[in-house]
Amino acid sequence: MPFVRLDPTSFSKEEIVVALTHSRLGGGHVGVAFHSKDGPRLFHLNWHVDLKLDEFPVAGCWTSVAVALPKKTAKQVVAVIRGIAQRMPKINYGVNFIAAKGSFKDRRYCAPKDSDGLTCASFVVEVLLHAGVDLIRRETWEKSAANEDWGNRVVCGLAGTPGVTDEHVAAVKKNVNGLRLIPFEVAGAASVTMNARPIDFKTVQDLAVAAKTALEHECPLN
Amino acid sequence: MSHSSLALADFEISSKVHARMGEHEFRTGVSFQQVITTRTTGSQPFLQGSFSSANEMLYDEFVNEVVHIRKQVVAIEQWKKHIVDSSASTDIDALEETVGALFDAMEEFGLEGVRFPAFNPETVNVEHLAVALRATVAWKHEIAGWNKALLVARETLARQNVDPDEVLYGLI
Questions:
Q1: In chain A, what residues touch B99 (CB-CB under 8 Å)?
Q2: Cα–Cα distance for residue pair B44/B59, rounded to 1 Å
Q3: What's this model's pTM, rounded to 2 decimal places?
Q4: pLDDT at residue A148 greater than cutoff 50
């Protein structure tokens, strides 16, 4: 599916789109957009216990890609995501996306055993998983030194965030191991045909680059 | 609420209560309906005869359980409403109603609130059944009747000559 600049008319009521924008740390920031009863919304985990359901026009420039789904399935996925968005749970920011699998119970967020929370990227993956759309093969993800650096920056960021407990900072620090689900990877995984899901780490890398390129094209940094 | 749901509620209540308590505890002159009505409205039930305190505790426990089961049955009826109505709208707002009622039932009653009964493949509204299955797919091994309900959905789609992937993508 092609990337297009996100606006309220760029996706129909019967579509789910994954939206991507720039982030301060350069890894991108990702969310999921859909039409609620009251109009289009952008649903994204901004930071620690900072879940957003933004009305349009949204702040900043975002590119987006529709998640390829059969039409009747897409309606159901929208209905389930609307259900989750009713509750707006408080979600800790955490890096262990493997342990986070199955984070939503009915419309509630409920961190599984050993989960330290979600990132913006794992939030999107978990929301879609809760609606029966599994984007990625988690077990194929690979570690990198760059991801470990990112994990350490997250720990510092959390430690400097008012209201974050020492216990949570310690739990996240323990999970910094070089594994990371990058927002560009999630956007890339969202762009594949429905039969290509769930996608593995190696296959998604070129798609992640394509997603980043699309963002830079739609939303150039000055 | 429909007549059939009341009948189901009474059946479930009777089964549970008889399983818990012996016949003599019910010789009180107070009917189930009186108990439920008075408990729901907050007024004191008029009891004929007398209870020992042990019996009163047991009676109280039983009343609470009856109220709980009745609420549970009502919650199940709510999320089933569109599934058993083949003419119900299948737009997103209607599907959201099914999901919302289902999530309400799960929040209040856990997985007991989402047991899938035996749906009739000839009359089921397959899109509403599919969205209910989708919203609960994470517990497909724990929820009673989930896999059978998926088979019903597949059978219904086959009868309608609809590709099962169109409606059940990600579930099969």
A1: 79-80, 82-83
A2: 14
A3: 0.86
A4: yes
